[in-house]
């Protein structure tokens, strides 16, 4: 026998399919449905939330639940054909368009006119708080005040290559090979770049120490996990030594951990987790939406660099109205990713 929750969901779907509830029309009240099925209001709320997650209905604050225009039920995505990993852009049929639409609708309902106003250049507070919870599960213990939300890692690279760092170093040390997008950002910023060879065994730590001790380096840009095109990661011992050297010589590390979600080893912590947030700036990308070319990322600057990061971000005009961080906030709150 179906549970009350399942009965309510099936009943509402049937009402929609038979045309008794039309798009834009309000669903029966929670109290009325609870009386109809002889159940508690909480059971009805749970059933409505299930329909909301499936993008069948949407909630309007202090009003009720309404049927989504033009939709009856969400469709399950099916896999067909090979997946091309040569591009960072997801295949069109793999993008969660209905969930994104659902989150946008929620954002409009919750924020209304605030949605298109100026926002905190550091990122909306509730989003940063959700990110704090998310990162804690990955051994990244940053507080909301240390998190900066950007519209993609490339924006973070642009800001970091332009801003001054403590010390006299002006050049950026990069692995060879490295991410071409970072090199492009450094070139536009007029930031000198010095290379250090990396192979499937890692880098020469003696050479790294020589660079750090030269006084020329303001930060070391690294992709410790699954560096493209090598596909290799640093060992735990190598990570610890890199962090030790950075601390010894006062050199900052910019850690691009964009493939962290593909890691299968639960003990493979990022450099940031080994550093306690003193020398490592952690950059993480979350998703890319090829329908608009937008992506969301965030970075965790150490406390000593927080103020210049925020100031440069604000001066560069990154506090303009942007519904995308709010959309990301809805995603984090709804699916707790």
UniProtKB/TrEMBL annotation:
<protein>
    <submittedName>
        <fullName>Transcriptional regulator, GntR family with aminotransferase domain</fullName>
    </submittedName>
</protein>
<keyword id="KW-0663">Pyridoxal phosphate</keyword>
<keyword id="KW-0238">DNA-binding</keyword>
<dbReference type="InterPro" id="IPR036388">
    <property type="entry name" value="WH-like_DNA-bd_sf"/>
</dbReference>
<dbReference type="GO" id="GO:0030170">
    <property type="term" value="F:pyridoxal phosphate binding"/>
</dbReference>
<dbReference type="InterPro" id="IPR000524">
    <property type="entry name" value="Tscrpt_reg_HTH_GntR"/>
</dbReference>
<dbReference type="Pfam" id="PF00155">
    <property type="entry name" value="Aminotran_1_2"/>
</dbReference>
<dbReference type="InterPro" id="IPR004839">
    <property type="entry name" value="Aminotransferase_I/II_large"/>
</dbReference>
<comment type="similarity">
    <text>In the C-terminal section; belongs to the class-I pyridoxal-phosphate-dependent aminotransferase family.</text>
</comment>
<feature type="domain" description="HTH gntR-type">
    <location>
        <begin position="2"/>
        <end position="70"/>
    </location>
</feature>
<dbReference type="GO" id="GO:0003700">
    <property type="term" value="F:DNA-binding transcription factor activity"/>
</dbReference>
<dbReference type="Pfam" id="PF00392">
    <property type="entry name" value="GntR"/>
</dbReference>
<keyword id="KW-0808">Transferase</keyword>
<dbReference type="GO" id="GO:0008483">
    <property type="term" value="F:transaminase activity"/>
</dbReference>
<keyword id="KW-0032">Aminotransferase</keyword>
<dbReference type="GO" id="GO:0003677">
    <property type="term" value="F:DNA binding"/>
</dbReference>
<keyword id="KW-0804">Transcription</keyword>
<dbReference type="InterPro" id="IPR051446">
    <property type="entry name" value="HTH_trans_reg/aminotransferase"/>
</dbReference>
<keyword id="KW-0805">Transcription regulation</keyword>
<dbReference type="InterPro" id="IPR015421">
    <property type="entry name" value="PyrdxlP-dep_Trfase_major"/>
</dbReference>
<dbReference type="InterPro" id="IPR015424">
    <property type="entry name" value="PyrdxlP-dep_Trfase"/>
</dbReference>
<dbReference type="InterPro" id="IPR036390">
    <property type="entry name" value="WH_DNA-bd_sf"/>
</dbReference>
